[in-house]
Design goal:
With 124 residues, the protein is α/β, with parallel strands linked by helices. Helix content is 39%, strand content 24%. The protein contains 3 helices and 5 strands. It has a 3-stranded parallel beta sheet, with helices on both faces. It is elongated and about 50 Å long.
Length: 124
Amino acid sequence: MRLRTRPALLFWITDGADAWATESLAEVAARHDLVLSLLRGPWADPPRAGAVRFADPESGAVRVVDLGDARVHAELARRVAQARAEVASLARRVRADAIEFTVDAPPAAPLAEWCRRRARERPR
């Protein structure tokens, strides 16, 4: 891995549910190597069939949806893709890296991929 001449390597670990403090992240990324580490639930890659129960952690509301319905599956997949695109866009804007982890898979693969990407890039 190529070393950079920055004071620290910081991992910002979040589930992405709250608003991102873009200004604060930009300030941190200007001084340090910042990696936005997004934790996703098992629905990050939604299955094609079956009933799935979703619960809103703030309101407690529970909703069961049938992912066998093509429209429902497509909408969920669209929302997941939109969330991923927003994180990628934010990372570019603040000049940070981004990694996505899922809670039901070991973190080694995404971390190794991030290390390979980093080794290929030129230092900034």
